[in-house]
Write a structure and sequence with these properties.
Distance between the termini: 91 Å
Protein name: Membrane protein
Order of helices and strands: HHHH
Structural class: mainly alpha
Shape: flat
Largest sheet: none
Radius of gyration: 34 Å
Region (Disordered): 61-109
Length: 109
């Protein structure tokens, strides 16, 4: 019974030592990076800055393209949401969508 406990304890201590070593390695690499690591970080930072500038430019273009008359109205409002707006005559709209039960003939009105 002691052997499995000792093996599991050894595996746990070894795993903890690996994690501590990785953390120390990352901290050292952050403070004193190698030449390849430093150049790769600079390249990643340039790419990140380019993406941020592109996002800011797209947002500015979208803001400039907004309708100045009604800034709160979504651009797709009339086409997309018109079927959800209440009609002027609710009863005629209900009659148009539901055929009569006797004979399923539409209303002659």
């Amino acid at each position: 019974m002691a052997a499995p406990v000792a093996v599991l304890l050894w595996i746990g201590i070894s795993a903890f030592a690996v994690l501590v070593g990785a953390a120390v390695n990352a901290a050292i690499d952050r403070v004193w990076p190698s030449v390849a690591t430093a150049s790769a970080r600079e390249a990643n930072e340039r790419v990140r800055e380019a993406k941020a500038a592109e996002l800011i430019a797209r947002a500015a273009a979208a803001r400039a393209a907004e309708d100045p008359d009604d800034p709160d109205m979504p651009s797709e409002f009339p086409e997309r949401w018109s079927r959800f707006l209440p009609p002027d005559d609710v009863s005629s709209r209900l009659r148009a969508h539901h055929p009569k039960r006797n004979g399923d003939a539409p209303d002659p009105d």
